Amino acid sequence: MFIASGWKDYEVIDTGDGEKLERWQDVILRRPDPQAIWPARDPSLWRKAQAHYHRSEKGGGSWEFFTKLPDRWVMNYKNLRFYVRPTGFKHTGLFPEQAANWDWMTDLVAERVKQGREVRVLNLFAYTGGATMACAAAGAQVCHCDAAKGMVQWARENRECCGLPEDRVRWIIDDALKFVQREARRGRFYDGILMDPPSYGRGPGGEVWKLENELYGLAKACSEALSDDPLFFLINGYTTGFQASVLGNMIDMTVKPRFGGLITADEVCLPVTAGGVLPCGASGRWQRA
Question: At CA 144, angle to CA 26 and CA 34, rounded to 5?
Fold first, then answer.
C-alpha cells in the first residue's frame, strides 16, 4: 500500500458506517466515505465533529455546522501550505492521501535538480494544486492544467501560500486531453506527468466523460508528451471497482514499451488513529529503473 503517514496537521480519527471523522488542523469534520462499510470503532469520538456533511437522496448534499468555522484556514504538510475550506460538494480542496505520491515525486525531482538539470512536470486534472506545489517546491517547472477556472484560482492562492516563485508554475485552463495532444505537437515535452482524472463528468459541450472509456487514450497521449529521459509517470484512480492493476496495465501498455523502467501499482491509504487504514483509491506509478 502507498500510505500517507507523514501528516501532522491532518488525521483520520475514526471511520465506519459509511463515514470518516477527520481532523483538519484544529477543525473536526465528519464526511461520507463509501469504503468505510464497517462499524465505527469508537462512537464516542464522533461527538467531537464541528461540521457534518449529509448526502442527499437526490444527489449532492449539504453541510450541517455545529460551530462557526473560519471561511478558510491553512494546512501544513512538511514545507508546503494549503488553503482548505468545506465546499458545497463535500470536499475541502485537498486530498491528504496524495501526500504519499507527493513524497515519491518530490524525491525524484529533487535528485535530478541536485544534478543541475531542469525538470519539467505536467499536472493534469490538477485541482487546487497539491502535487503542483510539491513538485514546484522540489525545484521543478510545473504546468498546472485544469478545466475549472475556480480550481486554478485556488491553486494560484496555494502557490502564494507556499511562498513559491511566480514563474515556477504555468497555469492552464483547458481540457486535459486536448491540451496534452497540443503540447506534443508543439514539441513541448515533460520529464514527469501525473493525472488525477474523474470517474465521470461532462465537458463544456455536454459531452460525457467516463474514465473506463477514456483512460487508455489519455495515457497514450501523455506517454507521447514525455521527454526522452523522463523521471516519472503517475495515474491516480478513484473509480469504485478499479483495481490498482488496471492503472498498472495502462502504464505497461503506453509508457513501458518506449522507456522500460519500473511499474508499481497499489492502493492509496490513510492511517486511522482508532485502528486500521482507510482505502482512498489507487495509483499506478512508473519511474526509471
Answer: 50
